[in-house]
């Protein structure tokens, strides 16, 4: 497996850098999600690690979101395993005790945006060609309640409602204006800035910061934990509909046509 890779070992600073490297576009396949969750779990259990910076090793793309091929023409068992892996990844990342900083160095639609939103702080390269957002509605699908909750917790209800209904992908400057990302910096300064932000957050005592983070996020995390099986059933029932399968196939065809 070579999907989510821990590119740099944890130094004396206690900070790990995780670089997504699953060409061509870091789509979140079952394999990718599983590896990402395992990497997070290992870091979480490593007392030497207090923070993680998440970025991409690929040019122009942070993550293209859930791997659409995992949701097309597969068995119920596969959909169950896939959706559980999506949930697991989010529960680990959003519920992490570590300081998590997303260094968004490329476009980040849908599931890719969820990863960034689940971090404590988002810094994006100031390239207007890079966009970020929960664009599910554009694919004819609906972001689950916990994607929505995560989004609302970052940008507030009104901005989230409009952006979700329209399935908007916001160019970096607009994403910054909306509060979807916290800062824009020139791409070559991204990692330097992420390290500086990390140092600022790590200057606080871990226990106070962690308890505060838990206080802010617990209700949203508990909601998925309490409804996890129901959420899987909803996903299966939704993704199994012929109309949804048709929408996903058409979207994949559109992506391929765009190239030619
Ligand atoms: C059904 C119930 C729903 C439950 C809720 C689901 C919640 C979240 C859903 C998602 O996350 S769905 C994924 C949404 N993602 C997108 O809409 C992004 C789609 N991709 C793009 O816009 C572009 O690919 C890009 C990321 C901007 C990159 O553009 P670029 O021009 O650099 O590359 P492409 O030529 O478009 O793509 C290369 C290659 O990758 C394939 N691909 C792209 N994205 C995905 C993906 N998300 N899943 C699977 N495959 C993807 C694309 O088709 C190309 O394939 P080939 O033509 O080379 O075979």
From TrEMBL:
Superkingdom of source: Eukaryota
Gene Ontology annotations for the cellular component aspect, listed alphabetically: mitochondrial matrix
Main location: mitochondrion
Keywords: Acetylation, Fatty acid metabolism, Isomerase, Lipid metabolism, Mitochondrion, Transit peptide
Catalytic activity, EC: 5.3.3.8
Annotated localization: Mitochondrion matrix
InterPro entries in the record: ClpP/crotonase-like_dom_sf, Enoyl-CoA_hyd/isom_CS, Enoyl-CoA_hydra/iso
Annotated GO biological process: fatty acid beta-oxidation
Primary role: Key enzyme of fatty acid beta-oxidation. Able to isomerize both 3-cis (3Z) and 3-trans (3E) double bonds into the 2-trans (2E) form in a range of enoyl-CoA species, with a preference for (3Z)-enoyl-CoAs over (3E)-enoyl-CoAs. The catalytic efficiency of this enzyme is not affected by the fatty acyl chain length.
PANTHER family on file: ENOYL-COA DELTA ISOMERASE 1, MITOCHONDRIAL, ENOYL-COA HYDRATASE-RELATED
Subunit structure: Homotrimer.
Protein name (database record): Enoyl-CoA delta isomerase 1, mitochondrial
Organism: Serinus canaria (Island canary)
Biological classification of the source: Eukaryota, Metazoa, Chordata, Craniata, Vertebrata
Gene: ECI1
